[in-house]
Structure of SURF1-like protein:
Amino acid sequence: MNARRWLVLLAALLAAALTARLGWWQLDRAAQKLALQAAIAAEADKPALGNADLTGAALHRRVLLRGRWAAERTVWLDNRPMQGRAGFYVVTPLLLAGRGDAILVQRGWAPRNQADRSQLPPLTTPAGEVEVEGRLAASPSRLYELGEGAGGVIRQNLDPTAFAVESRLPLLPLTVVQTAGAGDGLQRHWPAPDLGLHKHHGYAFQWFALCALILVLYVWFQLVRPRLRGHKS
């Protein structure tokens, strides 16, 4: 075998090894996401935490909290569709009973007024102490946003740390995604967390297919085709 064929063989083997390794890496990422999914489900199956149990609580843990709504600090997160309709996610701080701090609550979804995009839908916020059932998240729903987000009642995103300074509320670095409630007119058909499992499996298939293609092309052009030409001559 001459030097050129050795170089072609080496290049083919390196390319096949690289693409195969990338395929296995994507499968490993998918396995990590499956483990995360199992951990989320395990946290959701544990008993709900109360006001006194929030310190050090894990994300996705169920909570049952008591407190008063800081209704004047309500923020409407724009461009949040639900079941094919345009609308807002409503976020209101909850002043926790028996504590000196508060926590953001992603309360639910409300439809947008298509005729007047600046008009907010009606919202019922009970006065006095309420009970809020939900699960813990790191922050309210976030969308990609260029630059720094604008303030105001209607926003694209809400950063808890910046909002704590703006609102002068002692906010915990957590958010509650409310899962049950009545009488406020909000919907709570929250989408399941997308961990990207299908994406990783799709990428793995593409890398393994490319690896197989490299090997097939090498066998055809370097082994099979020269022999066929030799037989014809």
In short: Residues 3-39+196-232 form one domain. The CA atoms of residues 58 and 145 lie 27 Å apart. The chain has two domains: 3-39+196-232, 46-180.
